[in-house]
Amino acid sequence: MLQYILTQSDTYSIAELAQMAIEGGCSWITLHLPGMDAADIKAALTDGGVIDMCREYGTFLTVDDRPEVATDLGLHGVRLSLGYFAANPGATPMSMREQLGPEAVIGIECADASAVAPMAPADIDFVTIPASADNDRRRAFVEAVRAAGCATPVVAEGDFDTEDIAAVMATGVSGIATGARITAAADPVAATASILTLLSPDD
Asked: Tens-of-pLDDT digits for all 203 residues of the chain?
């Protein structure tokens, strides 16, 4: 599983980045646009045709830390960071599920593996391990989640060098969430395709 974390770029528009990731085979885009307000995000996605593009190609489109944007624009869901919960102390995985509804995709950044299994009543779709984790920590995190009887997919965050991806996947994670290796690439289409090949070497 590849989640492309799409951020603003001085070289390409949001729509161009989304299109190139899709052309490279990416089926999941997560918008990370902390410097934009809701109106600007809406304009970028609708005027640029990103939402229609993702619908046409069956690409998941989620957004970081902006559940109101996901609801207003009919996106697939959200990924909520540790910072989101720190800034919104009343928010919980269950309150997010109640707010967004049963069909929404909800991901939670989680630094503590013991917190994952208690999220089961909220039907959380995946958790992400912070980018600061190394492979030993990723492996221990996944093992602890599975030992607790929890099957929630675990995704590793980070701007991984291509030669490191196999080792990251060997920790037991279900996929990676990465951005700059695609956004800053000379050829984002080829970079996306290359990462996907490394994630599914037998395909």
From this structure: 999 999 999 999 999 999 999 999 999 999 999 989 989 999 989 888 999 999 999 999 999 999 999 999 999 999 999 999 999 999 999 999 999 999 999 999 999 999 999 999 999 999 999 999 999 999 999 999 999 999 999 999 999 988 899 999 999 999 999 999 999 999 999 999 999 999 986 54
Does the global pTM surpass 0.90? yes
Phi-psi label, residue 74: left if phi above 0, alpha if psi -120 to 50, beta otherwise: left
Residues 6+ apart with CB under 8 A from 83: 65
Q: Are 12 and 188 in contact (CB under 8 A)?
A: yes
Whether residue 108 contacts residue 94, with contact meaning beta carbons closer than 8 Å, is answered with no
Q: For residue 141, what are the contacts with CB-CB under 8 A and spacing of at least 6?
A: 113, 129, 133, 154
Residue with tokens 């600007």: 40
